[in-house]
Amino acid sequence: MNQREKALVGLVGIAGLLYAGTEGLTRYRDALDESDDQQLAAESSLQETKSLLRRAQRDQRELRKWRQRSLPTNPDIARSLYQDWLREATSDSGFTEASVLDKTNARSFADRPDEMKELSFEIAGKATLEQVTKFLHQFYSAGHMQRISKATFKPQEGKKELTVSLSVDALILPEVLREDQLAENATAELAHTLTEYRERLESRDLFAIYRPKQKAGDASTAKSDEPREDEAAKDARFTQITYGNGWTMAVRQQKSGDVTYYQVGDELEIGRISGRVIDLNDERVIYKTDEGQFELELGDTFSEARPLDVASGESAGRQRRRMR
Question: Which domain of life does the UniProt lineage start with (predicted)?
Fold first, then answer.
């Protein structure tokens, strides 16, 4: 083998070593990238699991509160006690010619002994607007698992009294320990006092023809000033929080799947929400807008944000939970 052939063999060997080294380096980098992707996927999955766990824990707390407000589990006793409570409420409010009829479909209870049960009643009578207001205030302050599903008020010519018809539903939840008594101290905090509600209602003509407000400068177009739901805020969910050079929150658009990341100090523009992130930790974010400060817990959508009491640093929801 002459000198030229030896040089060629050497070059081929060097090329082979370079190729093998390049392939090895490529495989190493690919392995690192794959490892990083797997780590990011694992962290994302962990955050999603934590978010689901927090929502499940919050739902459990809400369920426990609902059970405290539920009617007793014995359907016959619950119907009797609740009907008596409705009669007492209409009497205390000053209704005349009042009746409370049980419209419950009790036959369905036998088919679902361990499920939620719904009781239905119809209230009829005559009452002034002040007496109706007193009844509604007492009804919604009571805190029972109840609702008014239908209400009809008809004025009587030449009289202050209204002809009143109310359809009322109440719930019996499973796993409630009470069998033969209504919830004790079942109360709900309302936004205003009875006097404030009475003054607001009595200052209005409830039976006047409704005329929606018109846009300024356009008398031909009438539009209601009722605020529309912010669909963008409802679609944007706080799904993830990670730490690295400060806390970073992830906001996912549920319909499109797009994800945006924010840190403290970042501007926030989501639907009608325009503000700035002022605090972040592993459980919640606080952002500030022209309307004040708001708190959002991990797993919530921005439509579920709660106003923050700046003086105490707590949202209204947290304050109520602490007080209870």
Answer: Bacteria
CATH number at residue 134: 3.30.70.60
Task: Report the first-to-last Cα separation within the chain, whole angstroms.
Answer: 95
Residue 130 is part of which domain span?
75-106+113-202
Rounded to 5 degrees, φ, ψ at 63 are: -65, -40
d(C-alpha 272, C-alpha 290), whole Å: 11
C-beta separation of 127 from 84 below 8 A: no
State both tokens at 255.
Answer: 């319909």
Rounded CA-CA distance 138/148 in Å is: 13
**Same domain (yes/no): 84, 126:** yes
Q: Give CA torsion, residues 8, 9, 14, 15, to 10 deg.
A: 70
pTM equals: 0.52
Q: How confident is the model over 124-165, as pLDDT tens digits? A: 999 998 899 899 998 988 878 889 999 998 888 778 888 999
Residues 119 and 169: beta-carbon distance below 8 Å:
yes
Distance CA 258, CA 237 (A): 11
Token pair, residue 31, equals 């392995």
Please say whether the beta carbons of 303 and 237 come within 8 A: no
In whole angstroms, what is the distance from residue 69 CA to residue 100 CA? Answer: 21
What letter does residue 323 receive in the DSSP assignment?
H
Q: Copy the structure tokens of residue 320.
A: 């109520």
Half-sphere exposure of 101 (CA within 13 A, CB side): 10
